[in-house]
Amino acid sequence: MFKKIFLNIKNFFLIINNINKINKAKPKFIFYSENKSYLKYAYLLVETISKKYPGEVYYVSSDIKDRIEELNVKNIFIGNGILMQYFFLSVKGKNMFLTLTDLDNSVVKKNKYIKSYIYFFHAAVSSTKIYTQTAFDNYDQILCNGDYHVKEIRKREELASLDEKKLIKSGYFYFDYLNKKINKKDNNDEILIAPSWNKSKKDFINENFEKIIDKIIEAGFKVRFRPHPENLKRSMNILNHFKKRFKEDNFIFDDEPENTTAMENAKCLITDTSGIAIEYTLLMKNPVLYFEDFDKIHNDQFEMFKDLETMDEKVKSEFGYKFDVNQIDDLKKIINYAILDFKDKDLDINEFINKNFYNYKNTIDYFNKETLNGL
Predict the structure, then answer these.
(1) For 146, left (φ over 0), alpha (ψ -120 to 50), or beta?
(2) Which fold does the domain 184-356 belong to in CATH?
């Protein structure tokens, strides 16, 4: 017991010392990450900036395992709770990059010592529906995936009489990260199941996914179940139930921070509203089955944005296959049909990407030439 107390006290002062180091250095670039699952979205940005400004990038995380060893960056662990709050209230530097929403509306506060708070997206979804109405209000700059983000954010500013932010037409960095990492396979043999999280549900997850998993295994498919990072924080009771229920060779519970293996091995994805559907459809060029049981709306003013079709809905209507609770018993037939029907859609997908996303395969070149020097 005394040893644990001693280690906690030691850790407390170590984190305070880490924060003081940042404040003394007042670095030009600070990245904050909640946990290792979010590193992949920041990686290309951190890599690019650290090459141009070696030693001037601080990668700060609340996860002690979340580190970047291969780049010339300074890794800082700050933990959670009161120490994380102290970090945000006191941190000094020029540019802070985050992929965390509702800045200044939650425990994560802005302070006067940071010149610019910059948001980058960790999903290709729209900003109007699955985020709260105030999710992006307090950022100074936002790295936008496409015209849809610019239109959505400008409309929010107009409706709420907010000052205009600097919107940077960078594109979706994670698309380019995946293109570098993924090795597409011809012999992929898994069905990937990746539900979203929804704060309107009892366990933040649709419990019908248990029946979906059961039916797919029963049909002879191998299932890889990949919960959303928020489910790993909020829904462990039901996730532990899934682990116990499906203890067999044809079920994989995948909670790895990287999702490349999951996408490489899947010949089909089943989800409800998760943003992985967009990444999987457009980059892997394989079908997605959408479970149409409930909608995910975290913005209580979403009705005001109904004239702007969300990117989520665009991809679903253009390329998706829908099923409901009454069709779960027919999943084998639906999966086989979708795989057969989805062949030869490469040209349509490429046209869709180029029409809707900025700088596809060139996001970092654009950021390096058009944005970085001005930060």
Answers:
(1) beta
(2) Rossmann fold (3.40.50)
Instruction: Give the pLDDT confidence score for residue 7 in this predicted structure.
Output: 62
CATH 3.40.50.11820 boundaries in the chain: 9-178+359-374
The residue whose two tokens read 């999903």 is: 123
Reported pTM? 0.92
Supply the pLDDT for residue 188: 83
Residue intervals of the chain classified under CATH 3.40.50.12580 are 184-356
* pLDDT at residue 200 in the model: 55
The CATH code for residues 9-178+359-374 is 3.40.50.11820
Residue 323 pairs in a beta bridge with 291
Residue 108: half-sphere exposure toward Cβ, Cα within 13 Å: 17
User: How far, in Å, are 27, 172, 258, 264, 295 from residue 175 at the CA level?
Assistant: 28, 6, 14, 14, 25
List the chain residues with pLDDT less than 70: 1-8, 197-206, 229, 231-239
Residue 117 β-bridge partners = 96
